[in-house]
Design a protein that fits this description.
66% helix, elongated, mainly alpha, 0% strand, 34 helices, disordered N terminus, single chain
C-alpha cells in the first residue's frame, strides 16, 4: 500500500492501496472468464500488487503449497493484527472469505469516492494536483470493473484531464460509454465530429416531437401547439439533455448553434429556430453566466421570452426590444443572423402576430392610421426580420430586410376595411326591423388585400392570423369570405402545418355550422380540397378535422368527403396510432 500513500492524501492512498490488495484475492476461475479477468488485472503487477498469475507462479515453484497460500493471504489481506484472530469466527458462521473481503472492498470504494468528491469541492490550492497523482496511479486499472468507478470519479472531478488519458478513454468504446459527461465535454470540445454524432439523434428526436404535436388528433383552441409555456417547453427531454451536454462549455454551445444553423439552412425547418431560443433560455434558467454573458442575443431572447409567456408584446418590452435591435453596432452585424433565427421561432412569430392584430384593433377603435403607431411598426419590423432569417443566413448578408411601405399604407388599410365591413354588417343585424337596410354581407375582398396576401410574407402572416381571429370569434360569414383568398398565398403559407394545425382547432368552435352545405363547401371544396392531392400534410390535417367532427358534418357531404379523402394504408395506420377509433367512425377514416 505504501506506493499509494504518495498520492498526496494519506486516507486516499491507504484506501486505494487496500482495495488493490484485496482485488488480488478475487478468484480468477469464479465465473469462467479467465482471459477476461487476466486482462482486467493486468495492471496490478505494474503497481506492485500481486495478482492471480503471481499466486500461480508461487504455487508452481513452492514445495509447501499450504504455507505459500497462507503467506499470500497474509501479505495481501487486511493488515490488522486484531483481525486475524477474529476471522475464524466468520468461518464458524459459514461466511466465505471472499464475501467478507468484497464487503470491505465495497465500503472502502464508497468512502474513497466520497473523499475524492470532498477534495475536489474543497479550497485546497493543490487539490487538483492530488487528484492527478491519484489518477496516474489508478488509471492502469481502469478496465477493472471494481476499480473503474473510482477512476471515473477522479476523471469527473478534474477540470482538465491529461490529454493522453482523454485519448485513451475516447479510443475505448466501453470506457467512453461509462465516463461522466464532464469528461466527455473535454473530449467533445476538440472532436466536433464525435460531438455531432452524439447531438444528431437528439436534434432528430426534437423535430419528430414537434411534428407529432402538430399532427396530434386532439383538436382544441385552448390546448394547441402554442399552449405550453416557455418554461414548460424547456423541461423537454432533448433541451435538458443538450443543456447537460453543454454545461458551461462555450465551445460546445457554439458547436450546437452551428449545427442548428446548418440544419435550418438545409431543411428550412423553423423548429430549429425554436430549439436555438429554448437552449439559450434553458442555460439562463440555470444561471450559466459563462455562456449567457457571451451570447449577444441573451438579453433580447430573455425579453422576448417574457413576451411569449404573456402572449403579448406590451409597450415597455417593445421599447426594450427596439433598443436591442437599434444597438447592433457597425462591425457586429452578424448578430442579426442569430436574432433573425430567434424571431423566426414559431412561438415568437405567433406572439408578434397576435400582438399586431390586437394593436390594429386598438387603432381601429381610435380612428388612427397604422403608420402612426410606433409599436405596430416595431412589430412589423421584427416580423420582417424573422421571416427573412433563412435568406440572411444563406446569403451571409447581415442586414435588416426593408419592410415594404405599401404593406403599411395599402395592405393594412385594406385588412381594416374588411374588419369594418364585418362590424357594419353585425351592427346592422342588431337594428330593429324598421331601421334595417337591404345591406347584404360582402363576398369580395379588396384587391390590395389579395395582392399582398400572395406577394408579401409579412402581409400573408397577418392575413392568416386574421382568419384564425375571426374563426375564434365564430364569425362564419367573415370566414367564408376569407377562405377562398387563402388558396393562393405567399409560398403556400396557408397550407403549412402550423397554420392548418391552428385552423382545424379553431374550426371546432364552428362545429354546428358543418351541418350546412354552404359552410362545408367553403371549408372543404373552397379551401382544403384545393391542394390535398398534392400536399400530404393537407390530407392529414383534413382527416384530423373529420376525425373530430364527422358526427357533425352533413351526411351527404360526409359521404362525398369519405370517397375523396380515402387515405393510403399508411395514413390509416397512422390515424390508428393517433387515437382509438370509435365504433361508429366511417370505414374510410379508420
Amino acid at each position: 500500500c505504501s506506493c499509494f500513500v504518495q498520492a498526496g492524501d494519506t486516507s486516499i492512498g491507504w484506501a486505494l492501496g487496500y482495495m488493490l490488495s484485496l482485488s488480488s484475492l478475487l478468484p480468477e476461475e469464479r465465473i469462467g472468464l479467465r482471459k477476461a479477468l487476466q486482462k482486467m488485472f493486468a495492471g496490478l503487477p505494474e503497481l506492485g500488487i500481486s495478482n492471480g498469475e503471481d499466486l500461480k507462479e508461487t504455487l508452481t515453484n513452492c514445495t509447501e503449497p499450504l504455507k505459500a497460500i497462507d503467506q499470500f493471504q497474509t501479505e495481501n489481506g487486511i493488515l490488522l493484527p486484531t483481525l486475524q484472530s477474529a476471522l475464524p469466527f466468520l468461518d464458524l458462521h459459514g461466511t466465505p472469505r471472499l464475501e467478507f473481503h468484497q464487503s470491505v472492498f465495497d465500503e472502502l470504494r464508497d468512502k474513497l469516492m466520497e473523499r475524492v468528491a470532498t477534495i475536489a469541492e474543497g479550497k485546497d490550492e493543490d487539490r487538483y494536483g492530488k487528484l492527478e497523482e491519484l489518477l496516474e496511479k489508478s488509471f492502469p486499472l481502469v478496465k477493472m470493473p471494481s476499480i473503474q468507478p473510482v477512476v471515473m470519479q477522479v476523471l469527473k472531478h478534474l477540470p482538465k484531464v491529461p490529454e493522453k488519458k482523454l485519448k485513451l478513454v475516447m479510443a475505448d468504446k466501453e470506457l467512453y460509454k461509462v465516463c461522466a459527461v464532464e469528461v466527455k465535454r473535454q473530449i467533445w470540445q476538440d472532436n466536433q465530429a464525435l460531438f455531432g454524432d452524439e447531438v444528431s439523434p437528439l436534434l432528430k428526436q426534437y423535430i419528430v416531437e414537434k411534428e407529432a404535436a402538430l399532427f396530434s388528433s386532439d383538436l382544441s383552441v385552448l390546448h394547441n401547439f402554442f399552449s405550453p409555456s416557455p418554461k414548460a417547453r424547456r423541461q423537454g427531454e432533448v433541451v435538458l439533455k443538450l443543456t447537460q451536454m453543454i454545461g458551461k462549455n462555450v465551445k460546445l454551445y457554439d458547436m450546437v448553434l452551428q449545427f442548428l444553423r446548418t440544419l435550418f439552412l438545409r431543411t428550412r425547418n423553423v423548429h430549429y429556430c425554436t430549439l436555438r431560443a429554448e437552449l439559450l433560455m434553458s442555460l439562463h434558467d440555470l444561471d450559466i453566466s459563462e455562456i449567457c454573458s457571451v451570447d449577444p442575443c441573451h438579453k433580447f431572447t430573455w425579453c422576448l421570452d417574457a413576451c411569449i409567456r404573456e402572449r403579448f408584446v406590451d409597450a415597455k418590452r417593445a421599447r426594450e426590444l427596439q433598443g436591442f435591435l437599434d444597438g447592433v453596432k457597425k462591425g457586429q452585424e452578424q448578430v442579426l443572423g442569430d436574432l433573425s433565427m430567434i424571431l423566426c421561432d414559431p412561438f415568437a412569430s405567433n406572439t408578434l402576430v397576435l400582438s399586431t392584430v390586437r394593436n390594429l384593433q386598438e387603432l381601429l377603435s381610435q380612428d388612427a392610421l397604422p403608420r402612426d403607431s410606433p409599436d405596430l411598426m416595431l412589430l412589423l419590423r421584427m416580423l420582417s426580420l424573422g421571416q427573412g432569417a433563412w435568406d440572411m443566413i444563406d446569403s451571409q448578408v447581415f442586414k435588416e430586410p426593408r419592410l415594404e411601405l405599401e404593406v403599411v399604407t395599402r395592405f393594412l388599410p385594406a385588412m381594416l376595411s374588411v374588419v369594418v365591413d364585418d362590424y357594419t354588417f353585425t351592427v346592422e343585424q342588431k337594428l330593429p326591423n324598421e331601421e334595417k337596410t337591404s345591406l347584404s354581407y360582402p363576398t369580395a375582398l379588396p384587391d390590395a388585400f389579395n395582392k399582398y396576401l400572395q406577394e408579401n410574407r409579412v402581409a400573408c402572416e397577418m392575413g392568416l392570423y386574421y382568419a384564425l381571429h375571426i374563426a375564434k370569434q365564430r364569425n362564419k360569414n367573415a370566414l367564408q369570405r376569407l377562405l377562398p383568398a387563402l388558396v393562393e398565398t405567399y409560398n403556400d403559407m396557408a397550407f403549412g402545418d402550423i397554420f392548418l394545425h391552428l385552423l382545424t382547432g379553431h374550426l371546432t368552435l364552428l362545429s354546428d355550422e358543418f351541418g350546412t352545405e354552404e359552410f362545408c363547401s367553403a371549408v372543404f371544396d373552397g379551401f382544403l380540397l384545393t391542394s390535398f392531392s398534392s400536399k400530404e400534410n393537407v390530407h392529414r390535417h383534413t382527416l384530423r378535422l373529420l376525425l373530430h367532427l364527422y358526427q357533425k358534418v352533413l351526411p351527404s357531404c360526409m359521404e362525398t368527403l369519405v370517397k375523396t379523402l380515402e387515405p393510403p394504408k399508411q395514413v390509416g395506420k397512422l390515424l390508428c396510432r393517433m387515437k382509438p377509433i370509435p365504433k361508429d367512425i366511417p370505414l374510410a377514416l379508420q
